[in-house]
Amino acid sequence: MDYQDLLDIAEAEKTRQKSIRVHCCTSTGCQAANSVDVMKNMKNAVKTAGLEERVEVVGVGCMGFCGRGPLVQIDPDDTLYEEVEPENAASIIDALNGGTTEVIKGDSQHPFFSHQLRIVREHTGKINPERIEEYVAVGGYQSLYHALHEMSPAEVVEEITRSGLRGRGGGGYPTGLKWATVAKMPEGQKYIICNGDEGDPGAFMDRSVLESDPHLVLEGMAIAGYAVGANHGFIYVRAEYPLAIQRLQKAIQQAKKYGLLGSQIFDCPFDFKIDIRIGAGAFVCGEETALIKSVEGKRGNPVPRPPYPAQSGLWGCPTLINNVETFANIAPILKKGAEWYASIGTENSKGTKIFALTGKVRNNGLIEVPMGITLREIVEEMGGGVPAGEVKAVQTGGPSGGCIPVSMLDTPVDYDSLSKVGSMMGSGGMGIM
């Protein structure tokens, strides 16, 4: 596999795609509302109407507006349909052929969507997560090639450091500093671990990323492996996420097939493999030392630090641990540059953050917003406020966080501001009361 091969795969995929793409959400939430049957009925309707030459129905990842699912979005016109049922799904295809449909039309320009800035979720809801070719067609694995052929490991670490990216799993530790610590450890066996064990109540950001764009996470892990000198990675996912596990397994197989994981990646002296470890759902295994014990096959008990995992982690070897969303930011940073990423957000909180809006709010679902946006804009404009009465408080940071009263709704959402009002960013759960 070389760069031209990557471009050829992308071009072949773009040529294969039909002029009209009907995107049907097949994430866990929409599947629970019968989106698989919705997609099946729409595919049958395309055949019946003889539209197979110009229309294709594509199963995609989470579009975010989970409270209105199942969702169907049609390109190139960006038409959105909400609460689609199997019984009326075929009428959406009829509407493409001059007919009519009674299905509820959504508003793709609703503040829920228009106030977002999608970096990690840029392609979710637009590509089939089970086809590596669709990921490559939107630029997938080009950042890995760029790192291997045009940057030294130290330059990759420096780029991540200059971006200002901080860990998205809780405390917000500077990602570049963590990478640099592992990279400076003596040569030898090192490991990469992706922490996909989100356990905070109402949090489903990482699950959605793994279900919707698994190759983005794999690419970020491979880049990290090159940067710190690791050749083996593990993704730790809780057993309650069967669809994420299934799609990760398929993504890893596809990446191996194309030589994007394994030996001599992109004809470089860099080997990297990824295995999946399935957790039993213990909340404590979200803590990195407990997670390491679980990956080793032991009881997931936390252990005192130091030494930190970067010094002595998995099987006593230097280990880099980041969560799903952190790894998903890596390829975009290398693609567009550290300066671009650092221009988003606040002085000490760069980039975007994915939040799961839950609780007493009209618009439930996933949003990705720039750091520094206020709680008020998220809750009242994007979330639509509460169905009755007034917002009482917003809970952030899971069990380790706090409740922010309505009098503080103008608080900016960044690491420092949330800490000052007695809460924390956490992994991204946001409960509205």
Provide a descriptive summary of the structure in words:
The protein has about 425 residues and is of the alpha/beta class. The chain folds into three domains: about 15-115, Glutaredoxin (3-Layer(aba) Sandwich), CATH 3.40.30.10; about 140-340, NADH-ubiquinone oxidoreductase 51kDa subunit (Rossmann fold), CATH 3.40.50; about 355-430, Ubiquitin-like (UB roll), CATH 3.10.20.600. It contains 18 helices and 13 strands. The strands form three sheets. A five-stranded mixed sheet has the order 10-9-13-11-12, with no helix packed on it. A hairpin with a 5-residue loop joins β11 and β12. α3 packs parallel to α4 (about 90-95). The longest helix is centred in the middle third of the chain and has 16 residues, at about 240-255. The N and C termini lie far apart (about 50 Å).
Task: Please supply descriptive tags for the structure shown above.
single chain, alpha/beta, Glutaredoxin, Rossmann fold, Ubiquitin-like (UB roll), 3 domains, five-stranded mixed β-sheet, globular
Short précis:
By secondary structure, the protein is of the alpha/beta class.
Chart the SSEs and their pairings.
Elements: H1 3-16, E1 20-25, H2 28-32, H3 35-48, E2 55-60, E3 72-75, E4 79-81, H4 89-96, H5 111-114, H6 132-137, H7 142-150, H8 153-163, H9 175-184, E5 191-196, H10 205-212, H11 214-228, E6 232-238, H12 242-257, E7 273-279, H13 288-295, E8 319-323, H14 324-328, H15 330-336, H16 338-342, E9 352-359, E10 365-370, H17 375-382, E11 393-396, E12 402-405, H18 415-420, E13 429-432
Parallel strand pairs: 1-2, 5-6, 5-8, 6-7, 9-13
Antiparallel strand pairs: 1-3, 3-4, 9-10, 11-12, 11-13
Helix pairs in contact: 3-4, 7-11, 7-15, 8-9, 8-11, 10-12
